[in-house]
Write a structure and sequence with these properties.
The longest helix is centred in the N-terminal third of the chain and has 20 residues. This protein has a five-stranded antiparallel sheet, with no helix packed on it. Strands 7, 8, 9, 10 and 11 form a five-stranded antiparallel sheet that branches. Strands 2-30-29-28 form a four-stranded antiparallel sheet, with no helix packed on it. It is 10% helix and 42% strand. It is globular. The chain has a single domain, classed as Methylamine Dehydrogenase, Chain H, CATH 2.130.10.10. Helix 1 crosses helix 2 and helix 1 crosses helix 3. It contains four helices and 30 strands.
Amino acid sequence: MSKPEAPLARNVKRLSHVDLPGAGQVYVIGNHAYIGHVPNAQKIGTSILDVSDPGKPRITSQILIDDPESHSHKVRVIGDIMIVNHERNMSAIGRRADELPRVRASLRQALGRDPRASELAQELGVKESDMSLVEAAERTVYANGGFKIYDIADKAEPRLITYQKTGGIGVHRFDMDANYAYISTEMAGYVGNILVIYDLRNPVKPQEVARWWMPGQHVAGGEIANPEGRRHRLHHALRFGNELWASCWLAGVRVIDVSDIRAPRTLGQFNYHPPFPEPTHTVMPLPSRIAGRRIAVAIDEEEQAQSPEDMERRRGRPHGCLWVLDASDVADMKPLAMFEVSELDSPWSRATLQRFGAHQFQEHIDDTLVYCAWFAGGLRIIDVADPFAPQEVGHFIPEPATGKAAPQTNDVDTDTRGLVYIVDRHGGFDILEFARR
């Protein structure tokens, strides 16, 4: 379970390592870490680990996925209630199937005829020989999207309470508190993920209380679809007081008022697309003002190159990065700074088809330190005490998972002891210690 200290580290040391399947989220509360896994051969959806001894974490229980079309790569816990997502497996073929209707319609309009398979393949970035698989995936009806609620009073024996179905490809990331779940999901009649808020006070029967979406998503309600299609969507929203801070992919950032939980309304927005190409993954405010300013941070998700040619086309364009925003007036947010990691700072920055740039940070901040998961750049710890000049104060780049070209650090969390937890998209869970200086 233990690995030698990674040489590519500054002010951070590894306390332990566990060879777990690739993961999409790590969430730590108390003495337990909850890990949501991407699709894997072992069919593990969620792992619960006892981390009371950070040098010797041990697996308490694991929940298997009994649906070969789905995964549960996100997880959150409040008290004895655990929620995991249920989302369609989106391989490269599945993702292209999702885009096929839009691409077909666009080409038909441009060409004045039905597009050929070769033309569709070129636009989608797949081989022409794969088009039959893409079209078959397009025809497949998926009805298993949603989220599951577990009672984890006994963490060795999680007990399923209910399985709440949603729509489309299902639920992606989400937030929750003692009363509500803030779910990012596709729903019938909408293009791309929207926000659906559920009352959890009776976890046996969650009740939908409200929806929020951006103009151009509710096509069944008569809205004209946004030209970006599903790329104009909610990624997820985090609650801070009576606000939800929503990352909206290629639509940037939104701040939503939920003082009336049944009538969420948009307070402000900021979008840096274009010219910046990587989508907004997460956004949240800092807990305290800095020099009178309300500061927020946002992070992009570096998208996956689909082919060597696609990788080559991306050379020279900005990588996913960390943004620092002045959110003193959420109706008029302004960028103050960006933080990027140089390709020279990781030996795996140009590994074939592996992502290098940013992905995610811990979804709670106690001071001015932002712990970022940077794909092939590993963990980067950024201090935004000076919001005009964010500074890296520590980093840790793990080894690639067995058989992989580069590490793909996918998520990060911290606990009340000051320990740092990271997971890799291809495999591996590390507990780290940051030596503050």
